Amino acid sequence: ADGCLIYFGLVADMWSSTCAVVFLVVSSLAMWSLLKVMLSDPGAVPSGATASRVEDMEGYCAKCDQFKAKSAYHCSKCRRCVVRMDHHCPWMNNCIGANNQKHFMLFLFYTLIEATYALALILANVRTGYVYSSSTVAGLAYALLGISIATLLFVATMMYNQVYAIVTGIGTIDRLSLITSDAADEEESVDLAGLR
Fold first, then answer.
1. Closest by alpha carbon to 44, among 77, 85, 5?
2. Is the dihedral of CA 177, 183, 186, 191 positive or negative?
3. Which helix (H) or strand (E) holds 119?
4. How far is CA 139 from CA 4, 104, 118, 149, in A?
5. CA–CA dist 24, 114 (Å, integer)
6. Catalytic option among 4, 75, 81, 89
7. Distance from C-alpha of 49 to C-alpha of 26, rounded to nearest angstrom
8. What is the β-pairing status of strands 80-83 and 72-75?
9. Which site from 92, 96, 104, 122 is most exposed, i.e. has the minimal number of CB atoms within 10 Å?
10. How many alpha carbons fall within 13 Å on the CB side of residue 113?
11. Got the DSSP string for 85-118?
12. ∠98-103-108 over CA atoms, to 5°?
């Protein structure tokens, strides 16, 4: 998508170079946030950690064989316990936890801006009836339109989930655990004779 917009902004001279520069700046910020999420420690529980208060101790993680705080979860992919772990993100190849959630939110925010900006530029061309110079350029434009819509929907959903987790204090793993336990409670309360 970045290549298409840069092509349209600089080479094809369809939009002003300012549009391409703005898009490059936002894209660079998104890439910086992506690298911060991928390469930073999500909040792994250090080996040999102990609880300062008894009420903070949940016990030991059997897989790590060490202390695990109440808010920590073990990630089977990373093979470590992460404090306030929200989820393991396959695109980041890292857990989203206490130490890198801010950068993850920034990445989602910048990606949302990128997708919205690309969508607005393409829709502005469609609305004005712009005729593309070749079928290849038109194909690139419509591919960018599809990619922008798909990215916008996916990233908006991810951002909603993250904002919900931050506002409520209930991460994705905790929310899924609540849903699973509620469903299990409903199944247990069903009378086999069909009576409640």
1. 85
2. negative
3. helix 101-128
4. 10, 32, 15, 15
5. 9
6. 89
7. 39
8. antiparallel
9. 92
10. 16
11. --EEETTTTEEE-TTTHHHHHHHHHHHHHHHHHH
12. 120
φ/ψ bin of 53: left (φ > 0), alpha (ψ from -120 to 50), beta (otherwise)? beta
Quick: pLDDT tens for 88-135: 999 899 999 989 999 999 999 999 998 888 888 778 777 777 777 778
Question: ∠ CA(104), CA(110), CA(113), 5° rounding?
Answer: 140
61 carries an active-site annotation: no
Q: Find the angle CA(123)-CA(126)-CA(130) to the nearest 5 degrees.
A: 130
The token duo for 187 is 């199944």
With beta carbons less than 8 A apart as the criterion, state whether 4 and 140 touch: yes
Q: Residue 196: CB partners within 8 Å, gap ≥ 6?
A: 189, 190
Whole-angstrom distance, CA of residue 159 vs CA of residue 95: 16
Judge if pTM exceeds 0.90: no
Q: What is the pLDDT of residues 68-83, one digit of tens each?
A: 777 788 888 988 888 8
